[in-house]
Specification:
Radius of gyration: 20 Å
Oligomer: single chain
Helix content: 25-40%
Number of helices: 7
CATH superfamily of the largest domain: MutM-like, N-terminal
Distance between the termini: 26 Å
CATH topology of the largest domain: N-terminal domain of MutM-like DNA repair proteins
Shape: elongated
Strand order of the largest sheet: 1-6-7-5
Structural class: alpha+beta
Length: 265
DNA sequence: CTAAAATCCTGGTGGC
DNA sequence: TGCCACCAGGATTTTA
């Protein structure tokens, strides 16, 4: 559920406490989450300083002093905490990164979907991702060109990270509503004017999510307030805020999808 | 090629 | 109140 705005919020919160710190060790409590061989991770990470923390799609990127990149993906339920090493750990902490200031970076992840990668070549992790929708140089024409030769329904395509990066289930539904486009639409039938509305809607929705510091609910990520501004997501059978028609829920591409059948054509 | 289904997981929910 | 079946959901893998 952490999507682009939630991950961006986490990244911004971690820069202060972590940039300039040096890792001292790694404790792995749930080995399935570590996508680099654990001995290699434990051998290479200690001694590396955090030069910068950035975001790509829904990944956190820790730029390290030896040229390595540490990637963390929060997936469904992940969260990151910086706490004093003598403070008791929450039982859902799965990986512990020791720091040089008697603190620890703790990867808390109840559902165990989160992932950790340490690589020299970032392309191994993020090489196939589509463009960042909020990048300054991501223009309307770039967005339109993504749809060349594409088929299928709109919703699954928006969730495809190789198509466009960082959009997840919530922001896809909210963007379709704002654009007035039914998520079931075949993308090869979208008019230029509709693509323009969708481009603006995606950027506007993601920016709103960042402004509200992401969405918090279902005991997942906490701190943001975007959940109070959902127009369709999770509002099944409730009246559309524009026209009063009950919001419809159906499953598209295996994901719950919410839309107003009156406002979205 | 597209598309759907299965997979990984567990806290929360709804039914009884 | 307690038990339990069921579900969400990002990304990957498998099957159609």
């Amino acid at each position: 559920m952490p999507e682009l705005p939630e991950v961006e919020t986490v990244v911004r919160g971690l820069r202060g406490p972590l940039v300039g710190r040096t890792f001292t060790g790694v404790t792995v409590l749930w080995p399935n989450s570590i996508k680099t061989p654990v001995p290699e991770l434990q051998q290479r990470l200690p001694g590396q300083r955090i030069e910068a923390i950035t975001r790509r799609a829904k990944y956190l990127q820790f730029h390290l002093s030896d040229g390595d990149m540490l990637f963390l993906h929060l997936k469904m339920s992940g969260d990151l905490l910086v706490e004093p090493e003598d403070e008791p750990r929450h039982p859902h902490v799965r990986t512990i990164f020791g720091l040089d200031n008697a603190h620890e970076l703790r990867f808390k992840d109840p559902r165990k979907f989160g992932r950790v990668y340490l690589v020299t070549d970032p392309g191994q992790v993020v090489g196939k991702l589509g463009p960042e929708p909020l990048a300054d140089n991501f223009a309307l024409e770039d967005f339109k060109s993504l749809f060349q030769k594409r088929k299928g329904r709109l919703k699954p395509l928006l969730l495809n990270q190789e198509f466009i990066a960082g959009v997840g289930n919530i922001y896809a539904d909210e963007s379709c509503f704002l654009a007035g486009i039914n998520p079931q639409r075949q993308v090869n039938t979208l008019a230029a004017e509709e693509l323009e509305r969708l481009y603006q809607a995606i950027r506007q929705t993601l920016n709103a999510g960042i402004t509200w510091k992401g969405a918090s609910f279902d005991s997942v990520y906490r701190g943001g307030e975007f959940q109070d501004h959902f127009r369709v997501y999770g509002r099944t059978d409730e009246p559309c805020l524009t026209c009063g028609t009950p919001i419809v829920r159906l499953v598209l591409g295996g994901r719950s999808t919410h839309f107003c059948p009156q406002c979205q054509k």
